[in-house]
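User: Let's play a game. I give you a shape written as tokens, and you guess the letters that built it. Ready? Here's round one.
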């Protein structure tokens, strides 16, 4: 039985479970101690596994193996904005990973900041977005779609203030069929990821991750979720996958991904760079894949344009 004090043996060493940090439907994360220091030990939730239907068990195991395979392929220099895999193996016949231990997720950090009346400013939001864009570029270059970008999957390193992307169980290979089963978190999904295509599949590609990047930027700057994302989350919570069809009927199509007052409030936060910020947000949140940026470099250029406009002296802007 896995519990506090259990010693876990992986390929390169032993780890003593010290404290449960959290988890998901299929995974549980522990702080574990080892001679070299503490790590985050990620295990498949065996208690949930015992109660789950057989097909769901296979899905959870496949997700853990996908994450393990992706992280094991990364070079050491890829770890700047992606959580590092330190060790791996199996526990009770299920995949297990020792990951670098960071200081909590972005959702918790922002909640704490807001409870004390502090908000990350637009410059900080742009810096974080640039870091996440770099992480997604690594994922895409490795041949995957990430498909679950959200604040809870971004870990904070307080010493540097940097973010690292984590939890790669939903990654799907770019070379695989573009249509797939439902994956991810409804409140952060692109339209093609929430609303199935003909044949009941979800047609995603790397630009689906860029939509979630735009939703993240709006959330950081405005302090709330897009109303589009909130509507998808409510529909999914109430009706599961049938919620997509109900929203289509309610809106006679797909709900607007960015409403005029949302765009205006976001742009206002950037002052003299409002036009460039508006262009960035609209590009990321475009309702169709073909309208979004084609690659990370295009997003980097748009981020640079926003930062440059924010830094120009007032007289130069007037000229």
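Assistant: Ready! My guess for every position:
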């Amino acid at each position: 039985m896995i519990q506090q004090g259990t010693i876990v043996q992986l390929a390169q060493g032993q780890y003593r479970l010290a404290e449960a940090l959290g988890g998901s439907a299929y995974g549980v994360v522990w702080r574990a101690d080892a001679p070299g220091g503490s790590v985050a030990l990620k295990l498949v939730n065996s208690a949930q596994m015992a109660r789950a239907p057989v097909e769901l068990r296979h899905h959870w195991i496949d997700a853990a193996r996908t994450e393990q395979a992706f992280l094991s392929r990364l070079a050491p220099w890829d770890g700047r904005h992606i959580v590092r895999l330190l060790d791996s193996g199996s526990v009770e016949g299920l995949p297990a990973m020792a990951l670098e231990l960071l200081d909590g997720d972005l959702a918790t950090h922002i909640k704490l900041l807001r409870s004390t009346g502090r908000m990350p400013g637009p410059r900080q939001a742009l810096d974080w977005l640039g870091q996440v864009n770099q992480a997604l570029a690594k994922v895409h270059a490795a041949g995957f779609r990430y498909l679950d970008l959200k604040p809870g999957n971004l870990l904070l390193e307080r010493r540097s203030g940097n973010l690292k992307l984590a939890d790669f169980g939903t990654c799907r290979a770019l070379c695989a069929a573009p249509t797939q089963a439902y994956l991810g978190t409804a409140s952060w999904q692109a339209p093609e990821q929430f609303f199935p295509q003909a044949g009941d599949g979800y047609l995603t590609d790397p630009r689906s991750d860029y939509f979630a990047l735009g939703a993240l930027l709006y959330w950081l700057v405005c302090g709330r979720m897009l109303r589009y994302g909130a509507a998808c989350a409510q529909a999914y919570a109430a009706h599961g996958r049938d919620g997509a069809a109900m929203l289509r009927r309610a809106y006679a199509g797909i709900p607007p991904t960015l409403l005029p007052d949302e765009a205006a409030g976001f742009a206002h936060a950037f002052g003299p760079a409002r036009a460039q910020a508006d262009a960035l947000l609209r590009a990321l949140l475009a309702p169709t894949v073909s309208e979004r940026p084609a690659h990370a470099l295009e997003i980097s250029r748009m981020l640079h344009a926003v930062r440059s406009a924010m830094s120009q002296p007032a007289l130069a802007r007037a000229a």
